[in-house]
Amino acid sequence: MTTLAIPDDDAIDVFRTCISKVRDKDLKNRLSEIEYLIAKTAAEYRKKAEATKLFRLKPMHCAGDVKKDELTSVYTSRFALKGSPGRHIYDRLKNAPAHGRCPLCWQRTVGTLDHYLPKAEFPIYSVLPINLIPACIDCNKLKSDEVPRKASEQTIHPYFDNFEDDRWLVASHKEDDPYTVRFSTDPPDKWTSIAKKRLQKHFQTFELGVLYSSHAAVEIEGIIPRLKNIKRIAGTCGVKTHLHEEWESRLNARTNSWQTALYCELSSNKWFYSGGFE
Ligand SMILES: [Zn+2]
């Protein structure tokens, strides 16, 4: 997971851009008439997001005389569609994460924008930039249209949360099996119980344990030939030193990557570095 800079787009400007080419006069009038609602609800969203209380917002299935499907269509036909008036904003939001990585799993590449509060329940936020999270296709599908009903059910919001200052991702090896590593969350005691539950909710919603275990097994498969060479030349001590240096390098790059957690485990698991990998 990672944090992203909060988009500074004005909610009304984005909405106006999206509806700028609506030809149906009646629809255009009805959409224009809800601009005040777009501004009002955007301000409410921002306020709640900054207080980690988005779960308090109630689903809103229409706005003024504009129906739900007309609002969601602003997103699909006038924002996400290639060549549509809002597409350049869509692309800018989608391309924001470093290395094109999904901020929710920090593993796969971004393929879409995910509505943090789903447009099926909150169509008024269909094109609100601070509700649109760059995400990989898998994370987008796994979250689906789930709506948080209490504080602890809120997954990590990359624009408003920072869970990366402390180490919380840990890996543990199953002895006698060099390829099986399990990943879990273990945040510091100083975290609030809600923050701990939110992290766990995020980890489960996006099935990060399964994802990271799979990648770790492939990583281990790739390093075993080298570890065998190091052991032959420099012994167990050499293997431990090599794995420790890998861990330090990964930790320096990213506190809670699966690689950091993996090399922490491999360099401290005596069974593994002593020859369990052979
Ligand atoms: Zn993802």
TrEMBL record:
Organism per entry: Novipirellula caenicola
Domain of life assignment: Bacteria
Protein name in the entry: HNH endonuclease
